[in-house]
């Protein structure tokens, strides 16, 4: 074997052994096969040489209840070489006696998958002296703590709450109101918290609170960011997890039930030490207060079931425009403001022989922010005018809506003026508008004329026969004389 090949083989074997050693840096340790009712079963995940950056939730065990998670770290020095291990321990409390099975499972720890074959667990009667189930600390023997009891963890009083907030107590049908869900902690709060599966919780909460009698515009919060607020004479940190505006379809009420939001709340070791875990993971659920929004009917109006509700104004594509008779041009009627932009309908158009208007193209833009839904809806009309004149578009377009701030109906009308020059095209417009109808009726009219012709000839024939009969009878009578 040449020296080059030998070096290649040596490097290959070195990499292979290194990969094998690295793959064994993560391991799962299962607790005892027999557990008393007053003891706990544990699953311990240990990573050597690096911190535990991420890991999957540990499995549920039938017949047991999760009691919390603790974390620990240790450091060893052997022959001058320092190594460290970091562990996560999940505790399980047995609920009843019997034989139970922890199925095989796979976890992702620091992005690497590791499997456990599971095991059978027997739960027996409570023992007079519970065995110590906690993970061994390599420094216990060194500092004479090997026979000490489990560290005692205490719950720290918290100053926090979960709230569903609304910006209005009553609205009109179609009027929007804002809803937000947030977790609040006062600046004086000492209890340590962390978020627990916010995505899954939010999906469940939305299904619980989303009303069936209102249109939703979701603000789509993608990350939970702290916000400093002040109320009740205190400063708080607000973590908003959901925000939306709702637009009710009918009168009555929109009701939001109380919903729960679960946070990870850590218990703190009563006698903290330099080594081992000084806090124990636990959970606490906070509940929002139910809320109800009163929905009032719109005042009487012929179009009360069709109009949009909000604060709107009109934006036009031009103030004054010159055009030639029969030539087309584009006019944009744009409604902007605050409200349910998606539901805005086109303006009412008054038809005229002088003005040809085609169905509009539509464009919509919706903005969700600062507790409001704003935007614009644009209606782009292609039009032709057939007579020389100064045409005010306010005579042809109008958009009626309800303003909830003034509790009154209002109308948006154009200010645009079109100055039209050229020969009258109105006769051409009439002919072209009637031409299609005439051609459509040709076959029907032909049939009518044909039927009328048959009736005429048949009537003439009958009359002729009657005259001949009368003449013939007269001739016979004269002949007898």
TrEMBL record:
Transmembrane segments: 456-478
Superkingdom as given in the UniProt entry: Bacteria
Coiled coil start-end: none
Record-linked InterPro entries: BatD (IPR025738)
Keyword entries, A-Z: Membrane, Signal, Transmembrane, Transmembrane helix
Signal peptide (UniProt feature, chain positions): 1-23
Name of the protein this chain belongs to: Oxygen tolerance
Origin organism lineage: Bacteria, Pseudomonadati, Bacteroidota, Cytophagia, Cytophagales
């Amino acid at each position: 074997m040449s020296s080059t090949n030998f070096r290649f083989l040596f490097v290959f074997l070195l990499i292979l052994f290194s990969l094998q050693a690295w793959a064994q840096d993560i391991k799962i340790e299962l607790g005892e096969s027999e557990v008393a009712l007053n003891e706990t079963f544990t699953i311990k995940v240990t990573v050597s040489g690096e911190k535990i950056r991420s890991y999957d939730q540990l499995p549920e065990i039938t017949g047991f209840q999760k009691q919390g998670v603790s974390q620990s770290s240790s450091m060893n020095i052997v022959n001058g070489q320092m190594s460290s291990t970091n562990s996560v321990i999940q505790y399980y409390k047995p609920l009843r006696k019997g034989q139970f099975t922890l199925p095989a499972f796979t976890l992702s720890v620091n992005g690497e998958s590791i499997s456990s074959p599971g095991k059978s667990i027997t739960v027996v009667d409570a023992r007079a002296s519970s065995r110590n189930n906690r993970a061994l600390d390599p420094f216990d023997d060194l500092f004479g703590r090997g026979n000490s009891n489990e560290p005692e963890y205490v719950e720290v009083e918290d100053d926090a709450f979960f709230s569903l907030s609304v910006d209005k107590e009553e609205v009109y049908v179609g009027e929007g109101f804002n809803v937000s869900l947030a977790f609040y902690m006062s600046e004086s709060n000492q209890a340590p918290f962390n978020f627990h599966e916010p995505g899954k919780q939010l999906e469940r909460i939305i299904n619980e609170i989303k009303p069936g009698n209102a249109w939703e515009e979701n603000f789509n919060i993608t990350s939970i960011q702290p916000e400093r607020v002040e109320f009740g004479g205190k400063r708080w940190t607000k973590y908003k997890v959901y925000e939306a505006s709702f637009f009710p379809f009918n009168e009555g009420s929109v009701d939001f039930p109380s919903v729960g939001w679960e946070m990870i709340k850590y218990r703190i070791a009563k006698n903290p030490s330099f080594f081992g875990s000084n806090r124990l993971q636990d959970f606490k659920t906070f509940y929002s207060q139910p809320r109800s929004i009163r929905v009032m009917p719109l005042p009487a109006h012929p179009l009360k079931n069709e109009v949009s509700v909000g604060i709107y104004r009109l934006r036009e594509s031009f103030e004054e425009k010159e055009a030639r008779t029969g030539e087309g041009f584009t006019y944009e009627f744009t409604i902007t403001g605050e409200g349910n932009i998606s539901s805005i309908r086109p303006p009412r158009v008054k038809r005229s022989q002088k003005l040809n208007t085609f169905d509009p193209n539509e464009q919509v833009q919706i903005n969700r922010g600062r507790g409001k839904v704003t935007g614009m809806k644009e209606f782009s009309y292609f039009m032709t005018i057939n007579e020389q004149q100064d045409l005010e578009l306010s005579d042809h377009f109008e958009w009626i809506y309800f303003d909830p701030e003034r509790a009154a109906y209002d109308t948006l009308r154009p200010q645009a003026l079109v100055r039209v020059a050229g020969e009258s095209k109105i006769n051409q417009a009439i002919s072209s508008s009637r031409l299609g109808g005439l051609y459509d009726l040709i076959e029907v009219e032909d049939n009518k004329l044909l039927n009328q012709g048959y009736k005429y000839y048949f009537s003439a024939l009958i009359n002729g026969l009657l005259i001949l009969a009368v003449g013939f009878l007269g001739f016979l009578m004269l002949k007898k004389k």
